[in-house]
TrEMBL record:
<dbReference type="Pfam" id="PF23771">
    <property type="entry name" value="DUF7168"/>
</dbReference>
<dbReference type="Pfam" id="PF10979">
    <property type="entry name" value="DUF2786"/>
</dbReference>
<feature type="compositionally biased region" description="Basic residues">
    <location>
        <begin position="1"/>
        <end position="13"/>
    </location>
</feature>
<dbReference type="InterPro" id="IPR055592">
    <property type="entry name" value="DUF7168"/>
</dbReference>
<feature type="domain" description="DUF7168">
    <location>
        <begin position="291"/>
        <end position="390"/>
    </location>
</feature>
<feature type="region of interest" description="Disordered">
    <location>
        <begin position="428"/>
        <end position="453"/>
    </location>
</feature>
<feature type="domain" description="DUF2786">
    <location>
        <begin position="225"/>
        <end position="264"/>
    </location>
</feature>
<feature type="compositionally biased region" description="Basic and acidic residues">
    <location>
        <begin position="438"/>
        <end position="453"/>
    </location>
</feature>
<dbReference type="InterPro" id="IPR024498">
    <property type="entry name" value="DUF2786"/>
</dbReference>
<feature type="region of interest" description="Disordered">
    <location>
        <begin position="1"/>
        <end position="37"/>
    </location>
</feature>
<protein>
    <recommendedName>
        <fullName>DUF2786 domain-containing protein</fullName>
    </recommendedName>
</protein>
<feature type="compositionally biased region" description="Basic and acidic residues">
    <location>
        <begin position="14"/>
        <end position="26"/>
    </location>
</feature>
Length: 453
């Protein structure tokens, strides 16, 4: 940064600090209000005063200034001017909450992700607050202006406005949760602080009100038929009590997806349709987030996608073509079900000191499972690709697939220019061996035993 840039940055920071001090002084009654029209002193309205206190509370929480935060809490609990002031506080808190939800949507966050991060970082009641904030914010948009993925998330969250008037929301929410006013105010400031500090993340779809991109019409019916067949095969793999059957059903599902990816790529190339990589996020929940994320990563790579895990927020971002992302999500979900079932059936042994080793066993089990599944999926995908190249002609197929791989890599590297690599420590050999064995049982054997549906 040059000298002039440093000076400008320093001046901006100094001005921002001075403005914050003036706001604090005005809210505390320790400074004159700014001049209004014709040089007269203007007294801030009750609402402006409350908004300043809310802002100070968020800053105090961020800076861990306990005394200042307690002072702001006390003012918000009592409200300026008694009962009428409490109503103003309630209205201002909800208005700020809805405003900030709209802001983080523009920074890439989606409804389900906001609720998950509120639960992870703050607690269950904060998640319930976020659901209500999402529901209230969605009132501004007709259903036709909301992307289908958003609508699905809203349905899963059961996000709806259950209160009659916004001015009463804060009070009746506290009554509904069995909380006193002090606890309600604390929860609201927690959520507002969280929203204010969430970083911008990759935009994975249009926010409400934005124009939705047109989808290519050519492969839509084909994609749906393929996905339905894959879902049916994976459902059978998850429900059977016989490992050999599960192997065969899972193998057939991966074979279908690999063949479909090749057919889709050739079809798009032949029709001249514009098909570009897109981004999607998949939630990965505790316990054992790291090996579960590794499993998702190897499944993504087998389906020509790239994945990166955001440990703090508990999701993995995947970049790839739309049909490949669908395949990745489907297969990951099924393999996770199968891995969890195999893991819980396997019994960890106590160590030489008689201590319970369940956690280390399962961590090692899932890590080994993911590693082995990655090897098997890659081998199966390569086999299908070789067969397709011999059938379609390598000079026709290989350039198309290479171009798509390059497009995914370029899109991924543009979004994630700097990555930190995470390694999982393996400290339970019995868990590692059991996980490898389970992955072999869920590997891609028995393709010939499964008839085409």
């Amino acid at each position: 940064m040059g000298k002039n840039s440093r000076e400008r940055h320093k001046a901006k920071r100094k001005a921002a600090d001075a403005a914050q001090r003036r706001r604090s002084e005005r809210a505390a009654g320790g400074a004159d209000d700014p001049l209004g029209l014709f040089g007269t002193r203007r007294i801030p309205s009750q609402l402006e005063l409350v908004e300043q206190i809310i802002e100070q509370a968020i800053h105090a929480q961020h800076g861990e200034h306990r005394a200042e935060l307690d002072r702001c809490h006390a003012l918000l609990i009592a409200g300026p001017g008694g009962a009428a002031g409490i109503q103003v506080v309630n209205r201002a808190l909800l208005a700020r909450l809805l405003h900030d939800v709209g802001q983080v949507w523009r920074r890439g966050w989606q409804p389900g992700e906001l609720v998950r991060v509120a639960r992870r970082e703050c607690g269950a009641r904060h998640g319930r607050l976020m659901v209500d904030a999402v529901a209230a914010r969605m009132r501004d948009y007709p259903k036709t202006a909301v992307d289908q993925r958003w609508q699905s998330q809203l349905a899963v969250l059961d996000a709806r406005v259950w209160w009659e008037h916004d001015d009463h929301y804060v009070t009746i929410w506290g009554d509904r949760q069995g909380l006193d006013r002090a606890t309600v105010i604390t929860a609201l400031i927690d959520v507002l602080h969280l929203l204010a500090t969430l970083p911008a993340i990759e935009v994975v779809g249009p926010a409400p009100g934005d124009t939705r991109p047109a989808t290519a019409p050519v492969p839509a019916d084909l994609d749906q038929r393929m996905l339905d067949r894959v879902r049916a095969l994976l459902a059978k793999a998850e429900s059977t009590d016989f490992p050999e059957e599960a192997d065969a059903f899972t193998a057939k599902a991966q074979e279908l997806m690999a063949r479909h990816r090749i057919d889709h790529a050739l079809l798009v190339a032949a029709t001249g349709e514009r098909d570009q990589p897109v981004t999607r996020r998949v939630a990965v929940d505790n316990p054992y987030e790291a090996p579960k994320s590794l499993l998702l990563q190897v499944v993504a790579e087998a389906n020509s996608c790239r994945a990166v895990w955001a440990k703090r927020f508990g999701f993995t971002t995947i970049v790839g073509f739309g049909t490949d992302l669908d395949s990745t999500e489907l297969l990951f979900t099924s393999l996770l079900v199968q891995a969890t079932r195999a893991m819980t059936q396997a019994k960890p042994a106590t160590d030489e000191y008689g201590r319970n080793t369940t956690r280390s066993f399962r961590q090692s089990f899932l890590t080994a499972y993911a590693s082995r599944i990655g090897e098997r999926l890659s081998a199966a995908t390569d086999e299908v690709g070789q067969e397709a190249a011999e059938s379609a002609g390598s000079t026709q197929l290989l350039p198309v697939l290479a171009a798509r791989d390059d497009a995914v890599r370029d899109a991924f590297e543009k979004q994630f220019p700097q990555l930190t690599h995470h390694t999982t420590t393996i400290n339970n050999r019995h868990g590692w061996a059991s996980g490898r064995a389970a992955a072999d049982r869920a590997s891609l054997h028995g393709r010939q035993e499964v008839s085409h549906e």
